[in-house]
Amino acid sequence: MRALFIDGQAGAAGDMILGALIDLGVDPNTLKDALRPIVPSNFDLEVTRVSPNGIAATRLTVKVSEDVKHRHLPQVLALLAKGDLPARVRERAAGVFRRLAEAEAKIHSSTLEKVHFHEVGANDAIIDVVGSLWSLEQLGIERVLCAPLILGSGVGKSAHGAIHYPAPAVLEILKGISARHVDGLGETTTPTGAAILAEVAEFSINVAITAERIGYGAGAKTFLDRPNLLRATLGTVDFSFGHDTLWLGASDIDNTRPEVVEWVEERLREAGAVDVVTSTVAMKKGRHGTRIEVLCDFAQRGAMASVILNETGSLGVRWHEVMRTKLERRIESVNTPWGSIRVKVAVTPNGERAIPEYDDCREAASKHCRPLLEVIDRTAQLYYDQHPEHDTKRG
After folding, report:
1. Same domain, 118 and 144
2. Number of folded domains in the chain?
3. Average pLDDT for the chain
4. 259 plus 381 within the same structural domain
5. What angle do CA 26, 31, 33 make, to 5 degrees?
6. Do both 94 and 231 map to the same domain?
7. Residues 222, 139 share a domain
8. By residue range, what is the domain housing residue 39?
9. Cα–Cα distance between 166 and 154 in angstroms, integer?
10. Considering only CA atoms, which of 77, 93, 183, 175 is closest in space to residue 134?
11. Element (H, E) at 371
12. Which long-range contacts (CB under 8 A, 24 or more apart) does 265-269 make?
């Protein structure tokens, strides 16, 4: 599948995203023709080649003859309805501006209809947003992947006065999305850049992409410790299987009674763990201990750590982000001689695989005094009898 992977050590802004896409081969003149019907003033795209830290890149400067600083969301959506934009570009652009409006409304205790955009409603912001989304279509990009964004720090100016960086709107837009706070950079990721990527991208540090071309979009600032570049890698990614990003927490324990480990496993699963694994490890001074590893979503890390630290003698939990390759799955119910039993159905490239739910089978085996293995095997076979087209054993 044709995909784009975005990363860099200097954050993301709308003009940097669009600059990187132009660097990948989007024609600026064709882009201007597509944008003219929706931009209510004369404008130009100044494209220059620069080399921050010796890396050849494209710097995009949007020049408008007459700008409007304040617009409401309905006005922006009305502009998007003009012209001949592809349907997905128009829908995505509307989604970007709704994200911006929701963030502004939350920050200023207003509503989507009443809140007015400042800089992000200006013509140059509309060009950055729509231009970036139009360029993705021109490059034939089916999926956009993005590394965690770099967030700066410091104090800057806004239409409402002084604000802290990252801007409040950036933090609202990126809620639930992994990002990195870096001191001393000022504003790095802008609300426009954050909203574009939040709308179209999947965020992960674990991406295996076969690169075809690499484009760089340059920002205007100069940083002492890093090039001010956004990098866009165009290539292919194998999406034969599903992927998601999870967090793996691990803790090694040698001062807890062994029977407590089972208790901790149950508490972790009750708290929302995707999976829990324990293993015996050799620790310092010749002691044997237990390693507890828990897999969970980003938002569940605190709950998992609380269980481990409160229920064991552990002094800490190590975390790192992991990418999981997974099969599509669903839950169905099968009528059996022992009642209804749930079956987890995994979709593989060769057909479907039925895995009866252990707890249901155990309860049925105990209630009807049948061997557990008989219940498991018979339930799976009954599923295949009802769905013979999915039984890979039958060819």
Report:
1. yes
2. 3
3. 88
4. no
5. 150
6. yes
7. yes
8. 2-236
9. 8
10. 93
11. none
12. 265/292, 267/307, 267/311, 268/292, 268/294, 268/304, 268/307, 268/308
Pair 42, 144 in one domain? yes
Tally Cβ neighbours within 10 Å of residue 154. 14
Q: Are residues 255 and 211 in the same domain?
A: no
Residue ending a domain, among 176, 203, 236, is: 236
CA-to-CA distance for 365 and 185, rounded, in angstroms? 63
| Residue 328 CB contacts under 8 Å (≥ 6 apart), including other chains | 242, 346, 347
Domain final position from 299, 325, 351: 325
pLDDT band per the 50, 70, 90 thresholds, residue 150? confident
The pTM assigned to this predicted structure is 0.69
149 & 187 share domain: yes
317, two tokens: 């939990």
We report the CATH number of the domain holding residue 297 as 3.30.70.1380
Element (DSSP H or E) covering residue 49: strand 43-50
Task: Indicate if the alpha-carbon torsion angle 128, 133, 138, 142 is positive or negative.
Answer: positive
Q: HEC states along 193-248?
A: HHHHHHHHEEECCCCCCEEEEEEEEECCCCCCCCCCEEEEEEEECCCCCEEEEEEE
163: Cα separation from own chain's centroid: 27
Contact 356, 379 (CB under 8 A): yes
Tokens of 189: 């990721």
Instruction: Give the number of C-alpha atoms closer than 13 A to the C-alpha of residue 71, restricted to the C-beta side.
Output: 23
Nearest to 121 by CA among 161, 156, 78, 73: 73
Residues 103 and 157 placed together within one structural domain of the fold: yes
**DSSP secondary structure, 104-128, as one string:** HHHHHT--TTT-EESGGGSHHHHHH
Query: Which residue's entry shows tokens 């998601």?
Result: 244
Query: pLDDT digits over 344-379, tens only?
Result: 999 887 788 999 999 999 999 999 999 999 999 999
Give yes or no for a contact between 10 and 185, defined as CB atoms under 8 angstroms apart. Answer: yes
Kind and range of the H or E run holding 58: strand 57-64
Tokens of 13: 């802004």
- Which tokens in the block code for residue 177? 């999305």
